[in-house]
């Protein structure tokens, strides 16, 4: 089977509860699985300010999924997103065609590991900054 790499970003209304977010993610995962696709990366970007109001909303809950699959997979994912009442917008981008599944999965694991390492480094930097803030500095010398 020939696989193509896609990424889809979808924006939900900001007041949508977490259980509905989880249900929609599971629905998208199920569609990808039925079409013999592979999820590389799934990321919840959280609530962010929109560039312009959409359906009277100034914020939205952003979700990102990077996946591999046949070309008809995107049609089914987008068809299901179109009928989702809590959705504000979505965008799917084709990243590359005729990809090797194992290579892309390995690259995705490496990207996730780098992201986790960067987050851990930021966390340790924040702890260091907090320690400095807690220190009592006298100007007397």
Q: If you had to describe this structure to a student in words, what would you say it looks like?
A:
It is a single chain. This protein folds into 2 domains: 4-99, Ribosomal protein S6/Translation elongation factor EF1B (Alpha-Beta Plaits, 2-Layer Sandwich); 101-133. With 141 residues, it is of the alpha+beta class. The chain is built from 3 helices and 4 strands, in the order βαββαβα. It has a 4-stranded antiparallel β-sheet.
Topology:
Elements: E1 4-12, H1 18-34, E2 38-54, E3 57-69, H2 71-82, E4 87-96, H3 101-134
Antiparallel strand pairs: 1-3, 1-4, 2-3
Short description:
This protein is of the alpha+beta class and 141 residues long. Helix content is 45%, strand content 35%.
The total of beta strands comes to 4
- Could you say which structural class the secondary elements and strand pairing correspond to? alpha+beta
Read across the widest sheet, the strand sequence of neighbours is 2-3-1-4
Oligomeric state of this protein: single chain
Work out the helicity level.
Answer: 40-55%
CATH class of the largest domain: Alpha Beta
According to CATH, the homologous superfamily of the largest domain is Ribosomal protein S6/Translation elongation factor EF1B
Alpha carbon gap, first and last residue: 72 Å
**What's the shape?**
flat
CATH topology of the largest domain, which one? Answer: Alpha-Beta Plaits
Strand content: 25-35%
Return Rg in Å.
20 Å
Main β-sheet, in a few words? 4 strands, antiparallel
Total number of helical segments? 3
Provide the low-confidence segments as ranges. Answer: none
> What is the chain-wise order of helices and strands?
EHEEHEH
Q: Identify the CATH architecture of the largest domain.
A: 2-Layer Sandwich
What count of structural domains?
2
